[in-house]
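Entry for adenosine-5'-diphosphate complex. Fields follow.
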Amino acid sequence: MKKYIIALDQGTTSSRAIIFDKNKNIVEVRQKEFPQIFPKPGWVEHDPMDIYSTQMAVLHEAVAAAGITSEEIAAIGITNQRETTIVWDKKTGEPVYNAIVWQCSRTSAECEEYIRKGYGKTVREKTGLLIDSYFSATKIRWILDHVEGARERAEKGELLFGTVDTWLVWKMTGGKVHVTDMTNASRTMLYNIRELRWDPELLELFGIPESMLPKVCTSSEIYGHYDLPGEGTEVPISGIAGDQQAALFGQACFESGEAKNTYGTGCFMLMNIGEECRISEGKLVTTIGISLKDRVQYAVEGSVFVGGAVIQWLRDGLQILEKSSDSEAAALSVADNGGVYFVPAFTGLGAPHWDMYARGAILGITRGTTKEHIIRAAVESMAFQSMELLESLQDESGVSIDRLRVDGGACANDFLMQFQSDICGVKIERPEIRETTALGAAYLAGLATGFWGSLSEIREGRKIETIFEPDMDEEERAQLAADWKKAVGRTLDWAK
Ligand code: ADP
Protein backbone atom coordinates (compact mmCIF):
# COMPACT_ATOMS: atom_id res chain seq x y z
CA MET A 1 0.00 0.00 0.00
CA LYS A 2 1.50 3.31 -1.10
CA LYS A 3 1.12 5.89 1.62
CA TYR A 4 3.84 8.50 1.21
CA ILE A 5 5.55 10.88 -1.19
CA ILE A 6 9.04 12.19 -0.51
CA ALA A 7 10.15 15.64 -1.64
CA LEU A 8 13.86 16.32 -1.98
CA ASP A 9 14.45 20.06 -1.61
CA GLN A 10 18.00 20.77 -2.72
CA GLY A 11 18.62 24.38 -1.70
CA THR A 12 21.55 26.78 -1.86
CA THR A 13 22.70 26.25 1.72
CA SER A 14 21.11 22.94 2.68
CA SER A 15 19.55 19.73 1.40
CA ARG A 16 16.23 18.68 2.87
CA ALA A 17 13.95 15.67 2.61
CA ILE A 18 10.28 15.94 3.57
CA ILE A 19 7.87 13.02 3.76
CA PHE A 20 4.21 13.82 3.08
CA ASP A 21 1.23 11.52 3.57
CA LYS A 22 -1.80 11.43 1.32
CA ASN A 23 -3.50 14.26 3.25
CA LYS A 24 -0.41 16.45 2.71
CA ASN A 25 0.60 16.24 6.35
CA ILE A 26 4.32 16.42 6.97
CA VAL A 27 5.40 13.11 8.49
CA GLU A 28 9.12 13.72 8.72
CA VAL A 29 11.70 16.38 7.80
CA ARG A 30 15.48 16.07 7.74
CA GLN A 31 17.93 18.80 6.78
CA LYS A 32 21.70 19.06 6.34
CA GLU A 33 23.79 22.09 5.53
CA PHE A 34 26.84 21.78 3.29
CA PRO A 35 29.92 23.97 2.71
CA GLN A 36 29.81 27.10 0.59
CA ILE A 37 33.02 27.62 -1.35
CA PHE A 38 34.16 31.19 -2.08
CA PRO A 39 37.39 30.94 -4.11
CA LYS A 40 37.46 34.68 -4.94
CA PRO A 41 35.27 37.71 -4.20
CA GLY A 42 31.96 37.27 -6.04
CA TRP A 43 32.63 33.59 -6.84
CA VAL A 44 30.41 30.90 -5.29
CA GLU A 45 30.83 27.14 -5.71
CA HIS A 46 29.53 23.90 -4.21
CA ASP A 47 31.13 20.46 -4.31
CA PRO A 48 28.66 18.37 -6.40
CA MET A 49 29.52 15.36 -4.22
CA ASP A 50 28.43 17.34 -1.12
CA ILE A 51 25.16 18.16 -2.85
CA TYR A 52 24.56 14.50 -3.62
CA SER A 53 25.75 13.02 -0.33
CA THR A 54 23.80 15.43 1.90
CA GLN A 55 20.70 14.92 -0.22
CA MET A 56 20.93 11.13 0.04
CA ALA A 57 21.77 11.29 3.75
CA VAL A 58 18.63 13.29 4.59
CA LEU A 59 16.52 11.03 2.38
CA HIS A 60 17.73 7.89 4.17
CA GLU A 61 17.51 9.51 7.60
CA ALA A 62 13.96 10.72 7.02
CA VAL A 63 12.84 7.28 5.84
CA ALA A 64 14.47 5.62 8.86
CA ALA A 65 13.04 8.18 11.31
CA ALA A 66 9.54 7.75 9.90
CA GLY A 67 9.92 3.99 10.19
CA ILE A 68 8.59 3.36 6.69
CA THR A 69 9.71 0.95 3.95
CA SER A 70 10.26 1.68 0.28
CA GLU A 71 7.15 -0.31 -0.56
CA GLU A 72 5.09 2.37 1.16
CA ILE A 73 6.66 5.21 -0.85
CA ALA A 74 4.66 6.09 -3.96
CA ALA A 75 7.23 8.43 -5.50
CA ILE A 76 10.07 10.89 -5.06
CA GLY A 77 9.87 14.50 -6.29
CA ILE A 78 12.82 16.87 -6.65
CA THR A 79 12.97 20.65 -6.34
CA ASN A 80 16.24 22.50 -6.49
CA GLN A 81 18.29 25.68 -6.43
CA ARG A 82 18.00 26.88 -9.99
CA GLU A 83 20.67 27.77 -12.59
CA THR A 84 23.56 26.17 -10.65
CA THR A 85 25.77 24.40 -13.18
CA ILE A 86 27.53 21.02 -13.02
CA VAL A 87 29.63 19.35 -15.74
CA TRP A 88 30.81 15.77 -15.30
CA ASP A 89 32.41 12.84 -17.11
CA LYS A 90 29.83 10.56 -18.67
CA LYS A 91 31.87 7.40 -17.98
CA THR A 92 33.30 7.98 -14.52
CA GLY A 93 30.68 10.33 -13.09
CA GLU A 94 33.48 12.62 -11.89
CA PRO A 95 32.62 16.32 -12.00
CA VAL A 96 35.26 18.17 -14.00
CA TYR A 97 34.85 21.26 -11.82
CA ASN A 98 32.85 22.35 -8.77
CA ALA A 99 29.21 23.34 -9.23
CA ILE A 100 29.09 27.02 -10.20
CA VAL A 101 26.30 28.45 -8.07
CA TRP A 102 23.59 30.79 -9.38
CA GLN A 103 24.89 33.61 -7.18
CA CYS A 104 28.35 33.43 -8.75
CA SER A 105 29.19 36.50 -10.84
CA ARG A 106 32.46 35.29 -12.42
CA THR A 107 31.03 35.63 -15.93
CA SER A 108 29.68 39.19 -15.55
CA ALA A 109 32.25 40.63 -17.97
CA GLU A 110 31.40 38.03 -20.64
CA CYS A 111 27.72 38.84 -20.19
CA GLU A 112 28.39 42.56 -20.61
CA GLU A 113 30.25 41.72 -23.81
CA TYR A 114 27.28 39.77 -25.19
CA ILE A 115 25.02 42.71 -24.30
CA ARG A 116 27.42 45.19 -25.91
CA LYS A 117 27.40 43.12 -29.10
CA GLY A 118 23.61 43.45 -29.17
CA TYR A 119 22.49 39.91 -28.36
CA GLY A 120 20.09 41.01 -25.62
CA LYS A 121 17.03 41.10 -27.84
CA THR A 122 17.56 37.65 -29.39
CA VAL A 123 18.17 36.10 -25.98
CA ARG A 124 15.08 37.77 -24.51
CA GLU A 125 12.88 36.76 -27.43
CA LYS A 126 13.95 33.12 -27.25
CA THR A 127 14.47 32.53 -23.53
CA GLY A 128 12.45 35.26 -21.78
CA LEU A 129 15.59 36.15 -19.79
CA LEU A 130 17.98 39.08 -19.53
CA ILE A 131 21.60 38.25 -20.33
CA ASP A 132 23.12 37.76 -16.88
CA SER A 133 25.79 35.70 -15.17
CA TYR A 134 23.02 34.33 -12.94
CA PHE A 135 21.81 31.92 -15.67
CA SER A 136 23.66 28.70 -16.63
CA ALA A 137 24.86 29.34 -20.21
CA THR A 138 27.96 31.42 -19.48
CA LYS A 139 28.78 29.22 -16.48
CA ILE A 140 28.98 26.14 -18.75
CA ARG A 141 31.07 28.10 -21.19
CA TRP A 142 33.41 29.14 -18.38
CA ILE A 143 34.01 25.50 -17.41
CA LEU A 144 34.67 24.48 -21.02
CA ASP A 145 37.08 27.39 -21.48
CA HIS A 146 38.96 27.11 -18.17
CA VAL A 147 39.21 23.42 -17.30
CA GLU A 148 42.06 21.84 -19.21
CA GLY A 149 40.84 19.61 -22.02
CA ALA A 150 37.18 20.15 -21.14
CA ARG A 151 36.09 21.67 -24.44
CA GLU A 152 37.74 18.88 -26.43
CA ARG A 153 36.17 16.21 -24.26
CA ALA A 154 32.78 17.91 -24.49
CA GLU A 155 33.03 18.02 -28.28
CA LYS A 156 33.82 14.29 -28.32
CA GLY A 157 30.63 13.69 -26.33
CA GLU A 158 32.46 12.65 -23.15
CA LEU A 159 31.01 15.28 -20.81
CA LEU A 160 27.51 15.92 -19.54
CA PHE A 161 25.94 19.12 -18.25
CA GLY A 162 23.17 19.35 -15.73
CA THR A 163 21.46 21.66 -13.30
CA VAL A 164 21.15 20.22 -9.79
CA ASP A 165 17.99 18.21 -10.57
CA THR A 166 19.77 16.55 -13.51
CA TRP A 167 22.81 15.70 -11.41
CA LEU A 168 20.69 14.15 -8.64
CA VAL A 169 18.60 12.02 -11.03
CA TRP A 170 21.70 10.88 -12.94
CA LYS A 171 23.42 9.84 -9.69
CA MET A 172 20.29 8.26 -8.19
CA THR A 173 19.74 6.13 -11.30
CA GLY A 174 23.37 4.99 -11.46
CA GLY A 175 24.09 7.09 -14.54
CA LYS A 176 21.19 5.70 -16.57
CA VAL A 177 19.03 8.80 -16.84
CA HIS A 178 20.14 12.23 -18.10
CA VAL A 179 17.12 14.53 -17.93
CA THR A 180 15.87 17.87 -16.71
CA ASP A 181 12.45 19.46 -16.68
CA MET A 182 11.24 22.51 -18.59
CA THR A 183 11.23 24.82 -15.56
CA ASN A 184 14.92 24.19 -14.92
CA ALA A 185 15.75 24.23 -18.65
CA SER A 186 14.11 27.67 -18.92
CA ARG A 187 16.73 29.10 -16.54
CA THR A 188 19.77 28.01 -18.56
CA MET A 189 19.52 30.78 -21.21
CA LEU A 190 19.82 27.99 -23.83
CA TYR A 191 16.22 26.82 -23.94
CA ASN A 192 13.75 28.29 -26.39
CA ILE A 193 10.63 28.75 -24.27
CA ARG A 194 8.39 29.28 -27.31
CA GLU A 195 9.52 26.24 -29.28
CA LEU A 196 10.22 24.14 -26.16
CA ARG A 197 13.63 22.92 -27.27
CA TRP A 198 17.33 23.63 -26.85
CA ASP A 199 17.97 26.48 -29.25
CA PRO A 200 20.70 25.79 -31.85
CA GLU A 201 21.47 29.48 -32.37
CA LEU A 202 22.00 30.02 -28.63
CA LEU A 203 24.14 26.88 -28.32
CA GLU A 204 26.31 28.30 -31.10
CA LEU A 205 26.37 31.76 -29.50
CA PHE A 206 27.48 30.43 -26.11
CA GLY A 207 29.74 27.73 -27.58
CA ILE A 208 28.03 24.70 -26.05
CA PRO A 209 27.92 21.27 -27.74
CA GLU A 210 24.38 19.88 -27.82
CA SER A 211 25.60 16.39 -26.83
CA MET A 212 26.22 17.64 -23.28
CA LEU A 213 22.62 18.61 -22.69
CA PRO A 214 19.99 16.55 -20.88
CA LYS A 215 16.71 15.52 -22.44
CA VAL A 216 14.02 17.99 -21.43
CA CYS A 217 10.89 16.44 -19.90
CA THR A 218 7.72 17.76 -18.29
CA SER A 219 7.75 18.35 -14.53
CA SER A 220 5.52 15.37 -13.79
CA GLU A 221 6.40 12.00 -15.32
CA ILE A 222 8.45 8.95 -14.36
CA TYR A 223 12.08 9.70 -15.27
CA GLY A 224 13.66 6.68 -13.59
CA HIS A 225 13.78 4.80 -10.32
CA TYR A 226 15.73 4.92 -7.09
CA ASP A 227 16.63 1.84 -5.15
CA LEU A 228 16.79 2.66 -1.43
CA PRO A 229 19.91 0.91 -0.09
CA GLY A 230 19.21 -2.61 1.14
CA GLU A 231 15.54 -2.51 0.24
CA GLY A 232 15.37 -3.78 -3.31
CA THR A 233 12.16 -1.93 -4.20
CA GLU A 234 12.47 0.64 -6.91
CA VAL A 235 10.77 3.95 -6.13
CA PRO A 236 9.81 6.11 -9.12
CA ILE A 237 11.38 9.55 -9.40
CA SER A 238 8.48 11.37 -10.98
CA GLY A 239 8.53 15.11 -10.27
CA ILE A 240 11.08 17.84 -11.00
CA ALA A 241 10.75 21.61 -10.77
CA GLY A 242 13.02 24.55 -9.95
CA ASP A 243 12.38 25.93 -6.46
CA GLN A 244 10.29 29.00 -7.38
CA GLN A 245 8.19 27.09 -9.90
CA ALA A 246 7.70 24.29 -7.36
CA ALA A 247 6.37 26.90 -4.92
CA LEU A 248 4.04 28.25 -7.63
CA PHE A 249 2.71 24.71 -8.08
CA GLY A 250 2.63 24.02 -4.34
CA GLN A 251 0.45 27.12 -3.99
CA ALA A 252 -1.85 25.67 -6.68
CA CYS A 253 -1.42 28.71 -8.97
CA PHE A 254 -2.73 26.68 -11.91
CA GLU A 255 -4.60 29.47 -13.72
CA SER A 256 -3.57 32.67 -15.43
CA GLY A 257 -3.55 35.57 -12.95
CA GLU A 258 -2.73 33.39 -9.93
CA ALA A 259 0.41 34.54 -8.17
CA LYS A 260 2.58 33.77 -5.18
CA ASN A 261 5.16 35.73 -3.23
CA THR A 262 7.85 34.12 -1.10
CA TYR A 263 9.17 36.20 1.83
CA GLY A 264 12.58 34.72 2.61
CA THR A 265 16.00 36.37 2.62
CA GLY A 266 14.82 38.04 -0.60
CA CYS A 267 11.32 38.06 -2.06
CA PHE A 268 10.36 36.08 -5.16
CA MET A 269 7.10 36.78 -6.92
CA LEU A 270 5.79 34.61 -9.76
CA MET A 271 2.54 35.00 -11.62
CA ASN A 272 1.03 32.39 -13.91
CA ILE A 273 0.24 34.13 -17.23
CA GLY A 274 -1.30 31.14 -18.97
CA GLU A 275 -0.47 29.21 -22.11
CA GLU A 276 0.50 32.09 -24.35
CA CYS A 277 4.16 33.06 -24.18
CA ARG A 278 4.23 36.81 -23.62
CA ILE A 279 7.78 38.01 -23.25
CA SER A 280 8.07 40.75 -20.68
CA GLU A 281 9.37 43.91 -22.39
CA GLY A 282 10.78 45.66 -19.37
CA LYS A 283 12.71 44.54 -16.37
CA LEU A 284 11.14 41.24 -15.42
CA VAL A 285 11.77 37.78 -16.83
CA THR A 286 9.39 35.35 -18.45
CA THR A 287 9.89 31.71 -17.63
CA ILE A 288 8.19 28.33 -17.86
CA GLY A 289 5.89 28.26 -14.85
CA ILE A 290 4.20 24.89 -15.08
CA SER A 291 4.91 21.97 -17.39
CA LEU A 292 2.58 18.97 -17.40
CA LYS A 293 1.70 16.42 -20.06
CA ASP A 294 -1.29 18.41 -21.24
CA ARG A 295 -0.28 21.96 -20.41
CA VAL A 296 2.65 24.33 -20.52
CA GLN A 297 2.06 27.62 -18.78
CA TYR A 298 4.31 30.63 -18.61
CA ALA A 299 5.04 32.84 -15.63
CA VAL A 300 6.50 36.28 -15.14
CA GLU A 301 8.96 36.55 -12.32
CA GLY A 302 10.40 39.40 -10.30
CA SER A 303 12.61 39.39 -7.24
CA VAL A 304 13.88 41.80 -4.61
CA PHE A 305 17.34 41.21 -3.15
CA VAL A 306 16.70 42.24 0.45
CA GLY A 307 13.41 41.04 1.92
CA GLY A 308 13.59 39.31 5.32
CA ALA A 309 17.31 40.09 5.35
CA VAL A 310 16.49 43.66 6.44
CA ILE A 311 15.09 42.18 9.67
CA GLN A 312 18.23 40.08 10.07
CA TRP A 313 20.25 43.26 9.78
CA LEU A 314 18.21 44.96 12.52
CA ARG A 315 18.81 41.89 14.67
CA ASP A 316 22.48 41.11 13.96
CA GLY A 317 23.86 44.38 12.59
CA LEU A 318 22.08 47.14 14.52
CA GLN A 319 21.10 44.74 17.32
CA ILE A 320 17.80 46.47 18.05
CA LEU A 321 15.85 43.19 17.85
CA GLU A 322 16.44 39.98 19.72
CA LYS A 323 14.46 37.73 17.37
CA SER A 324 13.11 38.37 13.85
CA SER A 325 9.60 37.65 15.07
CA ASP A 326 9.83 40.50 17.64
CA SER A 327 9.57 42.87 14.68
CA GLU A 328 5.81 42.36 14.62
CA ALA A 329 5.10 43.56 18.16
CA ALA A 330 7.53 46.46 17.71
CA ALA A 331 5.81 47.55 14.49
CA LEU A 332 2.39 47.36 16.11
CA SER A 333 3.51 49.34 19.17
CA VAL A 334 3.43 52.56 17.12
CA ALA A 335 0.36 53.99 15.40
CA ASP A 336 2.08 54.37 12.04
CA ASN A 337 5.53 54.65 10.51
CA GLY A 338 5.84 58.24 11.74
CA GLY A 339 6.88 59.30 8.24
CA VAL A 340 9.93 56.99 8.29
CA TYR A 341 10.84 54.97 5.16
CA PHE A 342 13.60 52.38 5.05
CA VAL A 343 14.92 51.48 1.61
CA PRO A 344 17.14 48.39 2.14
CA ALA A 345 19.18 48.76 -1.04
CA PHE A 346 22.19 47.12 0.64
CA THR A 347 23.47 45.61 -2.59
CA GLY A 348 21.66 47.85 -5.04
CA LEU A 349 18.05 47.38 -6.11
CA GLY A 350 16.57 44.55 -8.19
CA ALA A 351 13.28 44.62 -10.11
CA PRO A 352 11.88 46.98 -11.20
CA HIS A 353 14.73 49.49 -10.62
CA TRP A 354 17.83 47.44 -11.47
CA ASP A 355 20.24 49.93 -10.01
CA MET A 356 23.41 48.29 -8.75
CA TYR A 357 24.59 51.66 -7.46
CA ALA A 358 21.62 52.27 -5.14
CA ARG A 359 22.43 52.01 -1.45
CA GLY A 360 20.31 51.66 1.67
CA ALA A 361 18.78 54.67 3.43
CA ILE A 362 16.41 55.48 6.25
CA LEU A 363 14.50 58.66 5.38
CA GLY A 364 12.08 60.96 7.15
CA ILE A 365 13.72 60.81 10.57
CA THR A 366 12.67 63.56 13.01
CA ARG A 367 13.30 64.20 16.70
CA GLY A 368 10.24 62.10 17.52
CA THR A 369 11.44 58.98 15.65
CA THR A 370 11.85 55.90 17.83
CA LYS A 371 13.47 52.57 17.25
CA GLU A 372 9.98 51.10 16.80
CA HIS A 373 9.37 53.46 13.86
CA ILE A 374 12.56 52.22 12.24
CA ILE A 375 11.57 48.58 12.81
CA ARG A 376 8.13 49.28 11.40
CA ALA A 377 9.64 50.97 8.37
CA ALA A 378 11.87 47.91 7.83
CA VAL A 379 8.92 45.52 7.94
CA GLU A 380 6.94 47.82 5.63
CA SER A 381 9.88 47.82 3.18
CA MET A 382 9.20 44.16 2.37
CA ALA A 383 5.62 45.06 1.50
CA PHE A 384 6.50 48.20 -0.48
CA GLN A 385 9.09 46.35 -2.55
CA SER A 386 6.63 43.52 -3.18
CA MET A 387 4.02 46.12 -4.17
CA GLU A 388 6.40 47.40 -6.85
CA LEU A 389 6.96 43.85 -8.09
CA LEU A 390 3.25 43.23 -8.26
CA GLU A 391 2.68 46.48 -10.18
CA SER A 392 5.36 45.52 -12.71
CA LEU A 393 4.08 41.97 -13.03
CA GLN A 394 0.61 43.27 -13.80
CA ASP A 395 1.79 46.04 -16.13
CA GLU A 396 4.09 43.85 -18.16
CA SER A 397 1.82 40.84 -18.46
CA GLY A 398 -1.45 42.73 -18.85
CA VAL A 399 -2.94 40.28 -16.36
CA SER A 400 -4.38 41.71 -13.16
CA ILE A 401 -4.89 39.92 -9.90
CA ASP A 402 -7.06 40.30 -6.83
CA ARG A 403 -5.28 37.95 -4.48
CA LEU A 404 -1.74 36.92 -3.70
CA ARG A 405 -0.64 33.64 -2.11
CA VAL A 406 2.25 33.88 0.31
CA ASP A 407 4.91 31.68 1.85
CA GLY A 408 8.47 31.90 3.25
CA GLY A 409 9.72 32.62 6.79
CA ALA A 410 8.54 36.24 7.08
CA CYS A 411 4.95 35.51 6.01
CA ALA A 412 4.43 34.47 9.65
CA ASN A 413 4.32 38.21 10.45
CA ASP A 414 0.62 39.16 10.59
CA PHE A 415 1.35 42.87 10.59
CA LEU A 416 3.38 42.50 7.40
CA MET A 417 0.64 40.46 5.72
CA GLN A 418 -2.09 42.96 6.64
CA PHE A 419 0.04 45.86 5.46
CA GLN A 420 0.79 44.00 2.21
CA SER A 421 -2.90 43.55 1.63
CA ASP A 422 -3.61 47.21 2.42
CA ILE A 423 -0.86 48.68 0.29
CA CYS A 424 -1.63 46.50 -2.76
CA GLY A 425 -5.40 46.45 -2.37
CA VAL A 426 -5.42 42.67 -2.87
CA LYS A 427 -6.36 39.74 -0.65
CA ILE A 428 -3.44 37.86 0.87
CA GLU A 429 -3.86 34.13 1.28
CA ARG A 430 -1.61 32.34 3.73
CA PRO A 431 -1.73 28.53 3.51
CA GLU A 432 -1.63 26.11 6.40
CA ILE A 433 1.38 24.29 4.95
CA ARG A 434 4.13 26.87 4.45
CA GLU A 435 6.54 24.29 2.96
CA THR A 436 5.13 25.12 -0.46
CA THR A 437 8.32 24.39 -2.42
CA ALA A 438 8.57 20.83 -1.14
CA LEU A 439 4.83 20.44 -1.41
CA GLY A 440 4.96 21.45 -5.07
CA ALA A 441 7.59 18.77 -5.81
CA ALA A 442 5.48 16.23 -3.91
CA TYR A 443 2.34 17.17 -5.91
CA LEU A 444 4.21 16.81 -9.22
CA ALA A 445 5.58 13.39 -8.24
CA GLY A 446 2.24 12.24 -6.85
CA LEU A 447 0.28 13.31 -9.93
CA ALA A 448 2.57 11.32 -12.24
CA THR A 449 2.03 8.08 -10.34
CA GLY A 450 -1.69 8.48 -9.65
CA PHE A 451 -1.10 8.99 -5.91
CA TRP A 452 -3.13 12.16 -6.34
CA GLY A 453 -5.71 12.10 -9.10
CA SER A 454 -5.94 15.56 -10.60
CA LEU A 455 -5.20 19.24 -10.31
CA SER A 456 -8.67 19.83 -8.96
CA GLU A 457 -8.11 17.29 -6.22
CA ILE A 458 -4.98 19.22 -5.24
CA ARG A 459 -6.69 22.59 -5.49
CA GLU A 460 -9.65 21.47 -3.41
CA GLY A 461 -7.48 19.88 -0.77
CA ARG A 462 -5.59 23.13 -0.20
CA LYS A 463 -6.02 24.48 3.30
CA ILE A 464 -5.86 28.23 3.75
CA GLU A 465 -4.91 29.32 7.23
CA THR A 466 -5.66 33.07 7.02
CA ILE A 467 -6.97 35.53 4.45
CA PHE A 468 -5.95 39.15 4.97
CA GLU A 469 -8.30 41.66 3.33
CA PRO A 470 -7.46 45.23 2.32
CA ASP A 471 -8.66 47.68 4.95
CA MET A 472 -7.09 51.07 4.33
CA ASP A 473 -8.63 54.14 2.78
CA GLU A 474 -7.47 54.98 -0.69
CA GLU A 475 -6.07 58.39 0.21
CA GLU A 476 -3.80 56.93 2.88
CA ARG A 477 -2.73 54.08 0.59
CA ALA A 478 -1.86 56.43 -2.24
CA GLN A 479 0.11 58.71 0.09
CA LEU A 480 2.16 55.84 1.55
CA ALA A 481 2.91 54.43 -1.90
CA ALA A 482 3.92 57.85 -3.22
CA ASP A 483 6.20 58.53 -0.23
CA TRP A 484 7.83 55.12 -0.68
CA LYS A 485 8.58 55.86 -4.32
CA LYS A 486 10.01 59.24 -3.38
CA ALA A 487 12.25 57.54 -0.81
CA VAL A 488 13.47 55.01 -3.39
CA GLY A 489 14.29 57.88 -5.73
CA ARG A 490 16.68 59.33 -3.15
CA THR A 491 18.71 56.11 -2.93
CA LEU A 492 19.32 55.58 -6.65
CA ASP A 493 22.75 56.03 -8.20
CA TRP A 494 24.29 56.65 -4.77
CA ALA A 495 27.52 54.63 -5.02
CA LYS A 496 28.44 55.66 -8.56
P1 ADP B 1 15.44 31.59 3.33
O1 ADP B 1 14.71 30.37 2.86
O2 ADP B 1 15.67 32.62 2.27
O3 ADP B 1 16.67 31.32 4.14
P2 ADP B 1 13.21 31.84 5.20
O4 ADP B 1 12.04 31.55 4.35
O5 ADP B 1 13.64 30.87 6.23
O6 ADP B 1 14.45 32.35 4.35
O7 ADP B 1 12.87 33.25 5.93
C1 ADP B 1 13.76 33.81 6.83
C2 ADP B 1 13.80 35.33 6.68
O8 ADP B 1 12.57 35.88 7.14
C3 ADP B 1 14.88 35.92 7.55
O9 ADP B 1 15.51 36.93 6.80
C4 ADP B 1 14.17 36.49 8.74
O10 ADP B 1 14.79 37.66 9.21
C5 ADP B 1 12.78 36.79 8.21
N1 ADP B 1 11.73 36.53 9.21
C6 ADP B 1 11.45 35.36 9.81
N2 ADP B 1 10.39 35.48 10.65
C7 ADP B 1 10.00 36.76 10.57
C8 ADP B 1 8.96 37.53 11.19
N3 ADP B 1 8.08 36.98 12.04
N4 ADP B 1 8.85 38.83 10.85
C9 ADP B 1 9.69 39.39 9.97
N5 ADP B 1 10.69 38.73 9.37
C10 ADP B 1 10.85 37.44 9.65
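NOTE: Residues 4 and 21 are 5 Å apart (CA to CA).
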